[in-house]
Description:
Layout: H1 2-18, E1 29-37, E2 55-58, E3 65-70, E4 79-82, E5 88-91, E6 101-105, E7 119-120, E8 122-125, E9 137-140, E10 145-148, E11 154-157, E12 166-172, E13 177-184, H2 189-195, H3 197-203, E14 214-217, E15 219-220, H4 221-224, E16 227-228
Amino acid sequence: MRRRNFMFACAASALAATLPATPADASPRFYARARLVDPAGRPLRARALPANRNFIFHYPFAGTPCFLLNLGKPTKPFAQLKTANEETYEWPGGVGAEHSIVAYSAICAHRLTYPTREISFISYRGEKSAGSRFAQVIHCCSEHSQYDPAEGAKVLAGPAPQPLAAILLEHDHENDGLYAVGTLGGELFNEFFRKYEFRLALDYGGHPKTTVEGRSIVSELTEYCKQQVKC
């Protein structure tokens, strides 16, 4: 009997070794809650956010930029996505009265391109262009990675290995306020800080990794950045 049980255990172990590993889930990561405010410090109202325009805020760290977008129409209610490491997750859709407001890390998942004060190669594009057959996408001109903001920033084209990390938003129905509370998907913050350590230290007074708490200022990309590259 012991020999039979031993043989069964060996066979089971061999079978398990040949089966593909079940992908792990990419669980939400929660950071300090930060209310989104305008450059004058006034709380942002979801219903007042213009549609189809690029807005920038920083979260969950002082040096990590994010896009805030009102797509002007409801997003998909959810999307099943995967990180580059095959971790699965479900994006919960947009927030606000029309479920049209979304936020994503503005760090491209391919070469970590991001908007700076001087120039931005990545932004939301409402219309098709010579470099894109898609409209209403986040387009990175570095290598033409394109993401669908209405479906969790799913990759539509280009070499990006995964969607942009989503910024989890809360919408307060009573005061119409918007709050950033965490991230979902493939974070690339460690890689980002390593790649741009010197530049970020200069831009953020040596403290790009400071956690954003309490509030985060939202600016229109045209005001935040001197030049936007179109492609």
